[in-house]
Specification:
By secondary structure, the protein is an alpha+beta fold. It is 23% helix and 26% strand. The radius of gyration is 23 Å and the shape is extended.
Length: 159
Amino acid sequence: RNQKQYVAYIAQYVWLGGVQCGRHTRPFLPIHRVVKMVPKKGEKKKRSAINEVVTREYTIHVHRCLHRVGTKKRAPRAVKEIRKFAEKMMGTKDVRIDTRLNKHVWSRGIRSVPFRVRVRLARKRNEDEDSTNKLYTLVTHVPVDTFKGLGTKNVDSEE
């Protein structure tokens, strides 16, 4: 291509990073693929369900989170990944992990963390007036024989 064709070729791309191709970095997002989402005029904001108190049971695949983690850092990383999972699922920054769950993760030592963990995530109201967060998440361990056929379950809060 000559210079004019090359400038026209580059002009049809939006520069949002690029693809490494040999020594050169090439743009990878054409303009016609960029679509801006504009909210419709009649559309109203929906009320967030995060403010509700709810309890759910999840199975966390910890083995997937610990891929390429050194052996002496596996159990601490597993606790961090459980905390991150709870924060993502429940939408609260304040996550409290129960001591029984911590003992279960550490039960086989720092290196041999269980592949999967069944947990109960309970979003609760914070009784502390000084706290910045109105809600917190309590993560507890649910002992199970097998993980087959278990999905996400909503649990009654009275339990």
